[in-house]
Amino acid sequence: MIKVNRLDGTEFVINGLLIESVESTPDTIVTLTTGKKLIVKQTVDEIIQLFEDFIRKTHTIQCE
User: Fold this and answer.
1) Topology of domain 2-58, CATH
2) Less crowded by CB within 10 Å, the N or C end of the chain?
């Protein structure tokens, strides 16, 4: 799971394996494989880092 924040600052978690794409428009929008779109405070680079940390912890994919 990846901890992120809504624009109002409240924290919630996303299943990292459901992330399909992340874009900056200028808000960061995380699109899940379900089609649901989430707007978060974190930047695209922060989401990438959180995802890589998640993958390392779960050992599901090898990151370089």
Assistant:
1) OB fold (Dihydrolipoamide Acetyltransferase, E2P) (2.40.50)
2) C
* pLDDT tens-digit series, residues 6-37: 999 999 999 999 999 999 999 999 999 999 99
Report how far apart, in Å, the C-alpha atoms of 8 and of each of 5, 34, 56 are. Answer: 8, 24, 29
Give residue-wise pLDDT tens across range 30-47: 999 999 999 999 999 999
pLDDT band, residue 61 (cuts 50/70/90): low
Q: What is the pTM of this model?
A: 0.85
Chain centroid to Cα 48, Å, comes to 7
The dihedral built from the CA positions of residue 58, 59, 60 and 62, taken in this order, carries a sign that is positive
